[in-house]
């Protein structure tokens, strides 16, 4: 099939009298951790505003649940819901030994990240492209033995808010695109998540940080220009989740599991709480029903679910790593175990339907429409769009190009000249041909059977043919 497709492409380039591939478009995916969709409403953001004029702005996007950093970033890189990619938490844990690793050391636990889904860097590299990543969650790990070609992993105790370092990293990435001809780079900034946690999303500190983000957006575009990349480079800005103000100073009744009548930590063999508004429990054998009944309805702002009863929209159930009981709180609350140990003014990790959890989305470049504002979409849909822009075949994923393609100019081919359009056309033709072949063969076979004639070689050959066509259809966009 591949052979036939190449022949067809060769034929097409010959007949159309044009080279199939000119310059491939490049793509930079930038994440500003915890940049809520409405953070530009109470701050002057001239660079973000200019970018919206020159490109596309979504009203907001919907992150996957659990709305925390590593899981949500891995969804951007794979297009899979968290239950499907397996990076279900920022923390690696072992329920037998009760060992838990915090966010940073978990970046280096390969088995945690490499759980069956390939990030776009590896897919791009396998299809002949060059990829890079700076500080993006998942960068430190290898996937089926491969790592992203150019990578920078931040040191431990990194100062995530240093604007000079942001500019240096931006220039380094633009250098990779220009001098090493990289096709795709993911670039991560740890703010405004940090100030959002520490001071809250409504604080002057958060507004100042949004100004810094805005200056950096201007810097990124200016650096792209300086490196001669404006005509070839697409830039997507988004984030992993939003931020919500936590009720403090005795304003509300806190959620402390120890205080719930009848609840015993000794009924659990493992728990993951004291981590914002979410938690997971593994009851001891025979204790699940007791723990569940004790907690369910115990606090008006605590949601208690058995894994198999989890609401469908969260897509957070179908994975062995998710523990049998899942807890989450309403906005404003966090879940504590024995006593309160969390003092952040802002938190995320809430239900992804909460508006406070929605990140922003902007995009600019030759693949995108100009001055277009679009409605919301789920962040799983960013992955198939990125693959489309890069002209690579996506892995199995939970997104749909249909949800994002209205942001793209009709044919990415027309300017960037990547092979997507032709490939799609021919895959489409092949699918139609395949379908006709199936109908044809079925008819013929029926006739043959009716006539009770034996022709084993013809039938086995046609069966393989049909299988091949089916596979082509399944892997097309
Ligand atoms: C957890 O620890 C136990 C005991 O050391 C070990 O047998 C098991 O493989 C570990 N599980 C994971 C997922 O690391
Ligand atoms: C994913 O991780 C689980 C353990 O957490 C393991 O049992 C499973 O085999 C892994 N799957 C893949 C495809 O790596
Ligand atoms: C900020 O980053 C620059 C460039 O990497 C470095 O020279 C400077 O010391 C850093 N400043 C702080 C306060 O971390
Ligand atoms: Zn985050």
Automatic annotation (TrEMBL):
Organism: Kryptolebias marmoratus
Sequence segments annotated as region (Disordered): 458-477
Record keywords: Membrane, Signal, Transmembrane, Transmembrane helix
Pfam families: Phosphodiest
Protein name: Ectonucleotide pyrophosphatase/phosphodiesterase 7
SUPFAM superfamilies documented for this protein: Alkaline phosphatase-like (SSF53649)
Membrane-spanning ranges: 425-449
Claim: Membrane is one of the keywords in the record: yes
Signal peptide start and end residues: 1-17
């Amino acid at each position: 099939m591949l052979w036939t497709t190449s022949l067809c492409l060769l034929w097409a380039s010959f007949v159309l009298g044009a080279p199939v591939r000119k310059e491939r478009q490049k793509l930079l995916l930038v994440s500003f951790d915890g940049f809520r969709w409405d953070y530009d409403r109470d701050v002057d953001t001239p660079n973000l505003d200019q970018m919206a004029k020159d490109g596309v702005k979504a009203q907001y996007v919907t992150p996957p649940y659990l709305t925390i950093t590593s899981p949500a970033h891995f969804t951007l890189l794979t297009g899979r819901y968290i239950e499907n990619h397996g990076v279900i938490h920022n923390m690696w844990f072992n329920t037998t030994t009760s060992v838990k690793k915090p966010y940073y050391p978990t970046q280096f636990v390969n088995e945690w990240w490499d759980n069956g889904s390939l990030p776009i860097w590896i897919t791009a590299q396998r299809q002949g492209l060059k990829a890079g990543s700076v500080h993006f969650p998942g960068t430190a790990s290898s996937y089926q033995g491969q790592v992203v070609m150019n990578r920078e992993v931040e040191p431990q105790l990194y100062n995530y808010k240093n604007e000079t370092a942001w500019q240096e990293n931006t220039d380094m990435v633009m250098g990779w695109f220009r001098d090493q001809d990289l096709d795709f780079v993911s670039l991560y900034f740890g703010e405004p998540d940090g100030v959002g946690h520490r001071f809250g999303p409504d604080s002057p500190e958060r507004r100042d940080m949004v100004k810094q983000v805005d200056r950096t957006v201007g810097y990124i575009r200016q650096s792209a220009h300086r490196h001669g990349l404006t005509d070839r480079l697409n830039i997507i800005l988004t984030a992993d989740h939003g931020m919500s103000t936590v009720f403090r100073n005795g304003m509300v009744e806190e959620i402390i599991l120890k205080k719930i009548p009848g609840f015993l930590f000794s009924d659990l063999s493992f728990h993951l709480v004291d981590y914002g508004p979410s938690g997971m429990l593994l009851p001891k054998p025979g204790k699940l029903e007791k723990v569940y009944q004790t907690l369910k309805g115990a606090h008006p702002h605590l949601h208690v679910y058995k894994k198999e009863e989890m609401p469908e929209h969260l897509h957070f159930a179908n994975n062995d790593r998710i523990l049998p009981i899942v807890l989450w709180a309403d906005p404003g609350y966090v879940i504590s175990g024995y006593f309160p140990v969390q003092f952040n003014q802002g938190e995320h990790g809430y239900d992804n339907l909460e508006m406070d959890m929605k990140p922003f989305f902007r995009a600019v470049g030759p693949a995108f429409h100009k001055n277009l504002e679009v409605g919301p979409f789920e962040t799983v849909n960013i992955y198939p769009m990125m693959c489309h822009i890069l002209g690579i075949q996506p892995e199995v994923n939970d997104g749909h190009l249909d949800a994002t393609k209205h942001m793209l100019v009709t044919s990415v081919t027309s300017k960037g000249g990547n092979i997507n359009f032709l490939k799609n056309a021919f895959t489409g033709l092949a699918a139609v041909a395949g379908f006709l072949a199936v109908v044809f063969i079925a008819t013929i076979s029926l006739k043959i059977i009716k006539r009770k004639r034996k022709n084993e070689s013809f039938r086995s050959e046609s069966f393989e043919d049909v299988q091949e066509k089916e596979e082509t259809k399944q892997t097309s966009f």
